[in-house]
Design a protein that fits this description.
Distance between the termini: 16 Å
CATH topology of the largest domain: D-Maltodextrin-Binding Protein, domain 2
Strand content: 15-25%
Radius of gyration: 19 Å
Low-confidence stretches: none
Structural class: alpha+beta
Length: about 250
């Protein structure tokens, strides 16, 4: 992100961001660039939710059961994520606030660092992570999905319930987006946007996204800019109140 923000604004440097750029500032504090002023939005390329999952042996069969137990036993329920400040962590922090529960974060350095093993063996009670990381494991029957973090049933997993069904008003929908250096000429930004939108409309591209749990989604630069502002307004206060610092 730093390299892209400081690159020549000639259209030959494009960066793929996994969250709204201001979130990096909230998590990491001082940056060597301004995540808003130094980067210009081009287009979304896809959206995805996280999934709240438990082991098949877990007593929790639904989000309502999970919330009910967590309400009765504050701090006792644990949730794994791929790390501090990840989308799984932030999704869970919003879930805690919306549901009014106290659950305990157990961060890992990625799922491969033991999180899945600990979920399967019951060392942790649950896990929040992306559809890309968990959807195939859920579909193969190795773990149980309690709900996705999107407000509505998600396109790549329409059979899974939403957390919002049990926790009204809850939504944590994440995305990938393309950005360029801020002073890139509008004509170049529009050219890249037009080509990206065209590419994302191709069936061959859509078919590659779906196994990743990612729904194709394009946007205008203005629409992506509005989404960045909305995400900054949502996640900034949560990161601050929970005193989350990126690793």
């Amino acid at each position: 992100m730093d390299a892209a923000a400081k690159a020549p604004p000639d259209g030959y440097t494009v960066v793929l961001s996994t969250v709204a750029p201001p979130i990096y500032g909230f998590l990491l504090g001082s940056l060597g660039y301004d995540p808003v002023a130094d980067l210009a939005p081009v287009s979304l390329i896809g959206k995805y939710p996280n999934i709240l999952t438990v082991a098949n042996a877990s007593p929790f069969k639904s989000v309502r059961e999970y919330v009910a137990y967590a309400t009765a036993h504050p701090g006792k329920v644990t949730f794994a994520t791929p790390g501090v400040g990840t989308t799984g962590h932030l999704s869970a922090e919003l879930f805690k606030r919306k549901a009014g529960i106290d659950i305990t974060h157990v961060p890992y350095r990625g799922v491969a660092a033991g999180a899945m093993t600990d979920l399967l063996t019951g060392r942790v009670d649950s896990m929040f992570n992306t559809t890309g990381s968990l959807l195939q494991t859920v579909r193969s029957g190795q773990i149980r999905a309690l709900g996705v973090t999107s407000r509505e049933p998600f396109a790549t997993a329409p059979d899974l319930p939403t957390i919002a069904e049990a926790v009204p008003g809850y939504e944590a929908l994440w995305w990938y987006g393309l950005f360029v250096p801020a002073k890139t000429p509008d004509a170049i930004v529009q050219k890249i946007n037009t080509d990206v939108v065209s590419m994302l409309g191709e069936d061959a591209v859509k078919s590659r996204f779906e196994p990743l749990g990612l729904a194709v989604a394009s946007s205008t630069p203005a629409e992506l800019e509005a989404r960045v502002r909305a995400d900054a307004a949502l996640w900034g206060p949560i990161i601050k109140s929970a005193n989350i610092r990126g690793e």
